[in-house]
Amino acid sequence: MNTKKTTWRFWLSLVILLVLVPLTVLVFSRFDRKYYLAGLAIIVLTTAAFFLHFESRKPQARELVILAVLCALAVASRAAFAAVPHFKPMLAIVMLTGIAFGPEAGFLCGAISGFTSNFIFGQGPWTPWQMFAYGIGGLLAGLFAMWGILKKAPKGWKDVIILAVFGFFGILLVVGPLLDTSTFFTVATSYDAASVLAVYLAGVPVNCVHGAAVALTMLLFGKPLLERLQRIQIKYGMMEP
Description:
The protein has helices spanning 3-28, 35-51, 61-80, 90-101, 103-121, 127-146, 157-181, 183-186, 193-236. It is mainly α. Residues 1-5 have low confidence and may be disordered.
């Protein structure tokens, strides 16, 4: 593997995901009822970042199929708990995808799952923000796995608990506040320091419930799902540059 080339592609993918995608969200938030177009633009950008992961080959069909299955599983996990307010395990599947297959795959899974699941829950100006926030959850999980903090193959309860703790605080401190921020671009017409503080404080209970759903899913299904994904990855050499 060419380390220099890999590093160049990796940093370019981060620029796409952390600069171009949020710029797209902000630009389209200024236009009324352009959220479908914004969603498609985000998917194009995240797909480009995902393909940059591969150096000298195209991804195999089985790799795309596995990613599609994980996206479908994420959407199903959100839909299954539609009757329970804010209890959505979807981000656990997104984060596990990032851990198993890398930050680019995690972001892509989050963005596509957010866009697709909103055909059930309703599309709106919040959709691009959800796609970005969910994608960031998958990206962070992939980065923490690259740094060795999260294990791709958890050995025992300690590793599983770390997964659950990451899931909870990833929602509480990153994904949730990003979703709360969308309020200022999609609902609020004017705001001051007090109203900004009120929005973020009001989001804390919601984010705690959301984080608890992700943490519980990590505890129950994180280890077995990662083990199966690792076996598939090793057997077929999937997601290798």
